[in-house]
Design brief:
The protein is an all-alpha fold. The protein has 6 helices and no strands. It has helices at about 1-15, 20-25, 40-55, 60-75, 85-100, 130-150. The protein is flat and about 60 Å long.
Length: about 160
Amino acid sequence: AVAAGMVFGIFAAFATEPFGVDALNIQAWGGWPLTVHSAFWGLLVNMVTVAVISAISPSPEGIAHRETYHRDRHEGARDTGPHSSGPKGAAALALVWVVFAAGPGTVVGNAAFGAPNTPADWLFGIPSLWAWQALWWGLGVVMLLYVSKTVRSET
């Protein structure tokens, strides 16, 4: 279902992009039908395809496997000790990372390592915001390792 959804979604995105409309010689619509971006049409077709295929072909073995998998994941993600913050702490850490790496906290990075308009004051020889982003995206790798270990999904 997922593979079919991906194939149909990619085709829908291509067929609703101006280049795809020209390449396929589609006369029914122009690029971006209803002024909605091609990515939306691809996602919509993907989700509908996956939902329809999943609804018409549920296998008992697949359902049993899914239930076993989710039960094991739920049991494995529980707190492991009296001082463990567990998945809730990992989620809080991820939220802090999102705020400072990609959200409103990036404003702090404008002047964290030197004034933006005075290159002579830049601590690392690059604009402060660049250094801020490199720092937080590096911390993001560490955070992902911690979160995956906390919820026991590391391999």
